[in-house]
Specification:
It comes from Shewanella japonica. Helices cover 62% and strands 12% of the residues. The chain is built from 10 helices and 8 strands.
Amino acid sequence: MTKQITQNYTEANFGLNQQHNADDEIDLRELFAVIWQGKWLIIAITSIFAVGSVIFALSQPNTYKSEALLSPADSEQGGGGLAALAGQFGGLASMAGINLGGGGGVDKTQMAIEVVKSRKFTSEFIQKHQILADLMAAEKWNMESDSLVYDPEVFDMDNQKWVREVKAPFKPEPSMQEAYKEFSQLISINNDKESGMVKVAVEHLSPTVAQQWVNWLVEDINLEMKQRDVAEAQRSTAFLENQIAQTNIADIRTILYQLIEEQTKTIMFAEVREEYVFKTIDPALVPEEKAGPKRALICVLGIMLGGMLAIMIVLIRHFVRKED
């Protein structure tokens, strides 16, 4: 009896599986049949997307990328500032109650990269070199005159006036926050952990502008890091001179004078060295070949999107009609 029941259950399951597979086969056939019936609609929609993607790709202006290869400059003054010197003299100075701060060097290369990416540096860079119009209003590049053409609905070149229409809290002249977002999309800084080399690149409508911005970035970050270290050394010197005035112990005064001497070396080193943080290995050039846009990829993606959308429309229309 039990054997008979088990056999019947197995046969029932087998029958259900066969029915399920048959349903799947029927559904798959129906699906292909529906797509085939709507082939002309699919072809029409895909063709529209194909033409649209070609027009869009051709309407996009060329962009050019200029890049420079940099090497971190060797720091002859150690970790820089009072904190680095504390590792050498901190023990003796602490016996006199003088706190020189913690040791531990700072990776100046990584710090310089983060400074370049910061809002403060970007804002100062844009204002210093007066590139807001080139950044926010450039529409295309005139190859013959090597000049930028600005969008007349955004920037009035003749009167040097911003005329774009925006809603509050935005103003006709772009803010530094807007400029920072746009600038961050145009620059790239990559640090090779193995070799230590740093690559700075700028992509812009104008190849000349791209090269100029790369050169300015390298110059400005070297200057910025130099000024930071000089200011730190000057503060350290002032602190040490104050400590000298407060102690009469000859050995401690000798140590403090040696610390001041090291700070003086730091300042002198910074003043005589132009490539303070980064040395240029391969300078930026005016690119001759475009970096973008990738028009073939735009067309392929447009055709694929149009085809998938067309198939979805055909299937949705069929099942809606079937339910009705």
